[in-house]
């Protein structure tokens, strides 16, 4: 399971990706976690970081590969 943590609420309709906001971070154990747009939080949680632009490109590529884009 991939957990992507965004600053603002965001809907991602891709199976296997869980989405949360910085204000409501669920348990992160046993997940691959990426914080989007807040590098300090990513460093504190010791997880991966992406910029907003990188996350958009990543999600768009996943949609294409899954035949949804």
Describe this structure in words.
- There is one protein chain.
- With 69 residues, the chain is α/β, with parallel strands linked by helices.
- Helices cover 30% and strands 26% of the residues.
- The protein contains two helices and four strands.
- The protein has helices spanning 39-45, 52-65, and strands spanning 2-6, 17-21, 32-36, 48-50.
- It has a four-stranded parallel β-sheet.
- Strand 3 (32-36), helix 1 and strand 4 form a beta-alpha-beta unit.
- The radius of gyration is 12 Å and the shape is globular.
- It starts with a strand and ends with a helix.
- The mean pLDDT is 95.
**Main β sheet profile:** 4 strands, parallel
Tell me the structural class: alpha/beta
Q: Total number of helical segments?
A: 2
| Average pLDDT | 95
Shape: globular
Q: How many beta strands in the DSSP annotation?
A: 4
CA-atom Rg in angstroms? 12 Å
Query: How do the strands of the widest beta sheet line up side by side?
Result: 2-1-3-4
Entry summary:
The mean pLDDT is 95.
Mind sketching the topology for me?
Layout lengths: L1 E5 L10 E5 L10 E5 L2 H7 L2 E3 L1 H14 L4
Parallel strand pairs: 1-2, 1-3, 3-4
List the keywords.
single chain; 69 residues; alpha/beta; four-stranded parallel sheet; 2 helices; 30% helix; 26% strand; globular
């Amino acid at each position: 399971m991939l957990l992507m943590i965004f600053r603002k609420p965001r809907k991602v309709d891709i199976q296997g990706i869980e989405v949360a906001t910085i204000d409501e971070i669920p348990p992160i154990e046993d997940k691959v976690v990426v914080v989007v747009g807040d590098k300090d939080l990513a460093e504190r949680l010791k997880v991966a970081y992406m910029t907003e632009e990188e996350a958009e490109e990543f999600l768009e590529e996943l949609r294409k590969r899954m035949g949804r884009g």
